[in-house]
Amino acid sequence: MLEETGTDSSNKSEEINNNSNTNNQVSGINEPEIIKYDDNYIYYLYHDKVIIYQRAEKIIYYKTINIDKNVTMNSSKILVKDNLLIVYYSYLNVRPYTEVYIYDTLNDFNLVNNYKVTGTYQDARLMDNTLYLVVVESLYTKNDVVPEYTRNEEKTSVSLDNIIYITNTNNIGYTSLVTINLETFSIHQSTQLGSSYYNTIYMSKNKIYLASVIFNGKRYMQETTIYIYNVTDSETTFYAFTTFDGQVLDQYSLDEYKGYLRVASTNTNAEVNYYNSIQIFDLNDVNSSSKEINRVGYLNEGIGKPYQTIRSASFNEDRVSVVTYQNRDPLYDIDLSDPKNPKIIGEFEAPGYSSYLHRFNDTYMLGIGYDDSFEPKITLYHNNTENKTYVNYGNDLLFDNYEKDKINRNDSRNGNAFRSLRTYSH
Q1: For a 10 Å CB count at each end of the chain, is N or C smaller?
Q2: pTM of the entire structure?
């Protein structure tokens, strides 16, 4: 349960016509954060509480919503939709649970609805009037439980007959896609036997992709399985999957365009000295028996030098820009206009690497990452009008006085030491 404190209704002000606009991967699909704002308020999720400030001529403290569970910022997030504030968090109480609380921001943050789902949340998205929540629960020690969800104290269990089983995949836990319609407040849950953790979650306008990376001890290499769900009328249904060698770095390594799934991945198999690849799958070519999608395009040569791994990727319609790194930062521009024949059309090399690429338009792209001394840097890339490839534009902006104690030197994502949250969480 959440508790409210510190209300001061006398400070209400006229509306300010500005809305929160998170740096979302896909336009129209909102991603959760710890800070949001709407016309009238700023919401700040700090550990076990949501601190609310009123936007007037100056910022005024309004109230605090306390979470009475032992949660941290890593297991809680917020979203804002019109006049609704959505707070959700996970905690452990014999079984893991995820709770969702929805408040009316126009009615002094009165509680509108609350939900409890078994499992730990992995990520969430908000599209149109629907909240999409991905939760997982391991089955290592609990083989006699089924997923459950509760709305306003009314509990519903998922029938075993309705749980999807996919052969030739890593079935070690329950994966549930929970959708909540923010107009009717109805809830729908689709569950499969799948992974107990997903490294990457990507959502397009009509599909959700869950990528799970495991280490295959028999083959002594990493493998990625991507589960694909259709999104229709505030509900999700399993559609297809694919498994391939290697791993994807993050959500920006996946992209859906004109009926194709494009994936940037790195295979760290020592026998091949690592290789990076672009894979293209036809979403309309699904094996009716196995439910695997067919790979139609593959480029695994020329993306990076030996032992370099992908550090960032940015898809833009028929193009993708990929940064690899070991000692220097090659930026590769790859043409995807022919899904069956992707090809490298440009390469630019510079010291350091960019761990995040942000496109402003077809001309300029921003790279955020590190130089060779692991000092944070910002690089501006310019699209050369002659050959349509990117080159460095001006000098890098360096941050020499960066607080190195805030750098996560043990980040295991792709073996990237010295990775900071500021350079890949946007």
Answers
A1: N
A2: 0.82
pLDDT in tens, 232-287: 888 999 999 999 999 999 999 999 999 999 999 998 775 666 789 999 999 999 99
Q: What is the pLDDT of residue 272?
A: 62
Q: Are 228 and 194 in contact (CB under 8 A)?
A: no
